[in-house]
Design a protein that fits this description.
Blueprint: E1 22-29, E2 59-71, E3 74-85, H1 88-104, H2 118-139, H3 149-175, H4 185-195, H5 211-220, H6 225-256
Antiparallel strand pairs: 1-3, 2-3
Length: 258
């Protein structure tokens, strides 16, 4: 009779590209108290026999190998298994919701400041990211060498949400400021630069300019606090979306690269 047994083994995973990671686990089998003078392993096949292998819903076996070698005075049998994680579950439950939250978060800057919903929206998104980060960390492997890039992505999204919350507080503060308080000169120059009002002038031919038109144009050129908020809202949402899209593309390309 040939005795058999079930062995439970572990290997140190490299989860840097989770959930698109590929793991290679090696199992070394040595004879107990028998040197190469007594026992010498010889591989009769170059690959494992997967006849009795049960298909796993999380991993796909890419390739296997069997090698023999020598470790000190002992003969060793090295069995290597290369596996690829099936990422569909984590894409649906982790990546897609995180990208969707990242798309919704900057939309706070298109809400009117006087509707009273901007603060609630930003705080709700911040809390959503906090809860979602806890869910993702529970699904991620608990290892720090190396740490999953997805952990850094979720942390960066949480920081972005916090920055958006702070910017929204300043926007509301400026919107409700008394118009009798003058806008600082540096902020006026910034608003004109962002809105291109200082460099672009639309001139209509054959228009008679009178004193009344000059008064209207001069009154329209005054930068108010509400004007500052409107211009900065457009600037913030543009910069945040561009930064988020670039970061998402870079992270996705890195994670999916083999």
């Amino acid at each position: 009779m040939f005795p058999g047994g079930i062995l439970k083994v572990k290997c140190s995973p490299d989860v840097a590209k989770f959930p698109f990671d590929i793991q290679t686990c090696s199992l070394e089998i040595l004879p107990w108290m028998y040197t190469t003078l007594d026992t010498l392993f010889t591989a009769v096949a170059s690959e494992l026999d997967l006849t009795y292998y049960e298909v796993n819903g999380e991993w796909t076996v890419l390739e296997t190998s069997i090698e023999t070698g020598k470790k000190g005075d002992y003969s060793v049998l090295i069995i290597s298994i290369k596996m690829e994680r099936i990422p569909l579950y984590h894409i649906v439950n982790t990546l897609v919701p995180m990208y969707f939250l990242g798309f919704l978060n900057p939309l706070v800057f298109i809400l009117p400041c006087d509707c009273g919903e901007r603060s609630g929206f930003t705080l709700t998104m911040l809390l959503s990211y906090t809860v979602f980060m806890m869910v993702i960390n529970a699904a991620l492997p608990q290892t720090s060498s190396p740490m999953a890039v997805l952990s850094f992505v979720t942390f960066g999204a949480l920081v972005f949400s916090g920055i958006i919350t702070v910017l929204n507080c300043f926007q509301l503060r400026m919107f409700h400021r008394d118009e009798s308080v003058p806008v600082p000169a540096w902020l006026v120059r910034l608003v004109k630069l962002l809105s291109c009002s200082g460099t672009r002038r639309r001139v209509k031919p054959d228009v008679v300019v009178n004193v009344e038109n000059e008064e209207i144009s001069s009154s329209n050129s005054v930068v108010t606090w509400k004007r500052v908020v409107d211009v900065l809202d457009i600037f913030y949402i543009t910069v945040i979306y561009i930064t988020g899209i670039i970061g998402t593309i870079v992270a996705t390309v890195y994670l999916t690269s083999k």
